Amino acid sequence: MSDERKHGSGSVAPGDTSDRVGMQVIRERGGDPEEIREALIDAIGAEFSTYYYYTNLRTHLAGHEDYKEIAEDARLEDRAHFELVMPRVYELGGHIPRDIGDFMDRAGCPHAELPEEPNAENILETLLEAERCAIRTWSEVCDMTEGCDPRTYDMASRILQEEIDHEAWFIELLSMERDGETNPAGHFVRGEPGEAPYSTNNRINDSA
Ligand code: ZN
Ligand code: FE
Fold this sequence. Notes:
By secondary structure, the protein is mainly alpha-helical. Helices cover 60% and strands 0% of the residues.
């Protein structure tokens, strides 16, 4: 009989769809799946808002086509971060807010609004600070999930890789634009815009 096997049964009754083994195993390892889930909603609220605000920031970099290209990679990768983690919220028994206003109110980072004086220097500084908030956010999620929730940890650490890339890109660009200083990011260009080499979710209609 299956319940004589080591993992054949556990704390969730057979056929019970009101509870999730995927949450219980986190609890059994000392984690708090509800707390993780709520932190994820705040974090992807910030990713979603960044995607929106970067659209506007990028538009105002007209004439700086090199900056626009890099802002575009960061913009699309932040959308990829939202898409990667959104299903995890449901796996952890939650849902994204019905009202996008509520979703934006709880975003864990300040909105990356177009600066009063939207020159390249001010826009790059806004971009840089948004990336720094993302690094803090995903580092916190890594801390919360390390050792108890390998699935969320894996997502957060993959996103963190890209946020650290993004910070390095904008340090390089702002250093030159504002201070005339060379401060290399040391990265190669993405293969395609917003490639998200670490975090990309399955593409919709991907025939590959
Ligand atoms: Zn991001
Ligand atoms: Fe980013």
